[in-house]
Specification:
With about 300 residues, the protein is of the alpha+beta class. The protein folds into two domains: about 5-125, Aminotransferase class 4, branched-chain amino acid transferase, N-terminal domain (D-amino Acid Aminotransferase, Chain A, domain 1, 2-Layer Sandwich), CATH 3.30.470.10; about 130-295, D-amino Acid Aminotransferase, subunit A, domain 2 (D-amino Acid Aminotransferase, Chain A, domain 2), CATH 3.20.10. The chain is built from seven helices and 16 strands. It has helices at about 30-35, 55-65, 75-90, 130-135, 165-175, 220-230, 275-290, and strands at about 10-15, 20, 40, 45, 50, 95-105, 115-125, 140-145, 180-185, 190-195, 200-205, 205-210, 235, 250-255, 260-265, 270. The strands form two sheets. Strands 8, 9, 10, 11, 12, 13, 14, 15 and 16 form a nine-stranded mixed β-sheet that branches. Strands 1, 2, 3, 4, 5, 6 and 7 form a seven-stranded antiparallel β-sheet that branches.
């Protein structure tokens, strides 16, 4: 996907209650969210002009903020309405939607109880997270050096900016070696997730996925689990060790950006995108399309 300068796109951004021209949606360099990662965000997709699971994302945004000890000064309904307004004004039917909330500039130090809480919402065209040709045959993943932290050391259930620092480092390292992404282990050496997506495995017709207790329990993850159960597939959430990966036949990852993407390689382990992965790709596509009942959420 070609690089683009996101500060120079056309359109409008919803910023603290009003629409502003895209290039005017700026913050000061002495912003607490920039220096101390006191920011939370969401990644959402609109299909046919409708945001998939819109309210569920807004609810998580507010919960993430509370975990970082601040309150977003807008209700879920107000955030939903703002997202839909941005989508409408930017005229994009198929779009990525990014709400972000952060602490402002009134206090510049670790302590920031008096800082204003800001909220901005942008939307833009963003195709599949991975190259379409590569995605269909299965992407290749490296094994990341960094690990997801012990949940006692970070607010791992929040979609918080600071938690993605090691994800960026890990994805850069993987891409330099020719991989599309990296799989991360947790602090105890167990399979966790990718840098921006949850991970699933298939063995003997059953679907396995790590317990989401030190990383984000993704909205797409939960959607795919529900779709799999509707198909009659058994879902097993348990600890998975790296040495078990040779026992699995299929692997796929899930996320708002990744949607459902097959995996063909993780470091030295190989997988073959198969029938279960393809079925869930098709089911997810049907679910997010506007004619699907979930898209109206």
């Amino acid at each position: 996907m070609a690089a683009q300068s996101y500060d120079r796109l056309e359109g409008v951004i919803w910023f603290d209650g009003k629409l502003v021209p895209w290039q005017d949606a700026n913050v000061h360099v002495l912003t607490h969210g920039l220096h101390y990662a006191s920011a939370v965000f969401e990644g959402e997709r609109a299909y046919g002009g409708r945001i998939f699971k819109c309210s569920e994302h807004s609810e998580r945004l507010k919960k993430s903020a509370k975990m970082l000890d601040f309150e977003i000064p807008y209700s879920v309904a107000e955030i939903d309405a703002a997202k839909r307004l941005v989508l409408e004004k930017n005229g994009k039917q198929e779009a990525y939607v990014r709400p972000v909330a952060w602490r402002g500039s009134e206090m510049m130090g670790v302590s920031a109880q008096k800082n204003t809480i800001h909220l901005a919402i942008a939307s833009w065209e963003w195709p599949s997270y991975f190259d379409p040709a590569e995605r269909l045959k299965g992407i290749r993943l490296d094994l990341a050096d960094y690990r997801r932290p012990d949940p006692k050391t970070a607010p791992c259930r929040a979609k918080a900016a600071g938690l993605y620092m090691i994800c960026t480092i890990s994805k850069h390292a993987a891409e330099r070696k020719g991989y599309a992404d990296a799989m991360m282990l947790d602090w105890q050496g167990r399979v966790a997730e990718c840098t921006g997506a949850n991970i699933f495995f298939v063995k003997d017709g059953k679907i396995y996925t790590p317990i989401a207790d030190c990383f984000l329990d993704g909205i797409t993850r939960r959607t795919v689990i529900d779709l799999a159960r509707k198909r009659g597939f058994e879902i097993i959430e348990r600890r998975i060790m790296p040495e078990e990966l040779s026992e699995f036949s299929e692997c796929f990852i899930t996320g708002s950006a990744a949607e459902v993407t097959p995996v063909s390689v993780i470091a030295n382990w190989n997988f073959k995108p198969g029938g279960i992965t393809r079925q869930l790709m098709d089911d997810y596509t049907a679910e997010v399309h506007p004619k699907g009942k979930a898209a109206a959420a």
